[in-house]
Protein: Coiled-coil domain-containing protein 30
Amino acid sequence: THRRRCSLKRLSLLQCLPQYLTSGEKTSCQHQGELRELRQNLRRLQILCNSAEKELRYERGRSLDLKQHNSLLQEENIKIKIELKQAQEKLLDNARLHSSLTAEWKHCQQKVKELELEGLRQTQSLKSQQGLQEKLAREKSKAAEAQEKILDLQQKLDHGRQVCLSDVCILRKKQLEEEIKEAKSIEARLQQQCQEEQQRRILLDQDINELQTQVRALQDKEEQQEAVNSQQQEALRKQLERERRKCEEYVKSNQELSEKLSNLQQEKEALWQEHGRFLEQLGDHVRNYKDKHHCHKAKLQKVKDRLTHELEIRNKRIKELEDETGKLQQKIEMEKVFQGQIMAQNDILLLEKRKLLEQVTDQEELICSSKCTISAFQSKASLLDKENQQLQENCLRLMQQIGLLEQIIRSIQIRREEETVITDNAAFEILKKILPLQNSSFSGTGFVLSAENLQETELHKWEGAAAIPKSPEPLSRSQDSESGYINVTSLKETHNTQGDQKPEL
Structure:
């Protein structure tokens, strides 16, 4: 029974196919033209995207060059700071050397002062020695006078011995001898004092000579140290002048580098501001696109709900017709001969259905891929942090072109909807024309003609599929799926109308 019902449905579909194929071919040609236009627009978009990517790469390379230049400037600044630190350390070392040399010079001056004091002391001792020498000379003169007196006394004694040999002379002689002894003792003492004074004089002369040699050595050392200090001071002065010049040069270079860095920071701030503006504009565009996408989804959902409602109504009608066809099972026993052919056609239709399902799945995959591409574009948009004003203008131009393309796509969708409405109206007109047909359509010749027409339609379909490229765009697949869906619904409606005619007859 089920097979008979299917055979009746397929026969009605075969009768309606030839009239419907002409309108389908027209719509397919129109869709192909629209597809070509869309492909051209997509190619233009790809070219614009490629140019934008090239500009992005150029700007990124330029930003990398600027970063490298900044890093080099920072390295030079670090090197200059290191050299400044080294120069400061050298200055500190030189200052320490200068301070140590000044301390040594002061120490030498103190030694010279001490030696001068010792020289003064030695001069004082020399003066005292000279006074002692004068005293010695005086004592010597006194001793000479005493010796002269002694000689005079001896002569007087001899003369007295010769003149008088009396007791008075003896007493006088004793007195003279005592005086001579006293004079000899005084002379011995004076000689000892002279020897002691001579020894002291020799020691003082030796000390004076040693002090003079020390003074000369210290004077030589002082002169050498003064010469060395003068040379070192001149060398230090020259080094300080050189380092001061280097420091001035370093300061000038640092000022230039700081000015360059300030300019670069200002440029960076300006670029950040432009980047923020661009991100704000891009966020606005993305929001508008999302709002439009949500509106489009809502419209598609409404259309889908309406079509599902219509399908439910048609399915109810089909059930009613199936109930009515159950009453007509007795009349369809003679049509078992064509059952094999109808089964083959059923297999072909199942294959077509599978193909349509595959196309639907491919379309869903393409939608997913389009979502992925949208996410990729969003990620690329997040990477557009370092773009310039030129890129911003190009992006604005691209957004304007995308808006034009969206308008074109909307116009194409509106045309499709209009064409679907037109095709639905054409299908209803075909059904109206088919309604006054008689039951003679169920004859053998009608079945043969319908089978031949079905084969021709299949050949046309295969030729149209061969004409379409192997990798079609997502829009072309959606158009094929929509056209197939419209064909099936129109065929179901024709079958329902024929089922209504048969019970009336």
About this structure: The helical segments are 2-163, 167-327, 339-382, 389-434, 444-467, 474-504. Residues 2-163 form the longest helix (162 residues).
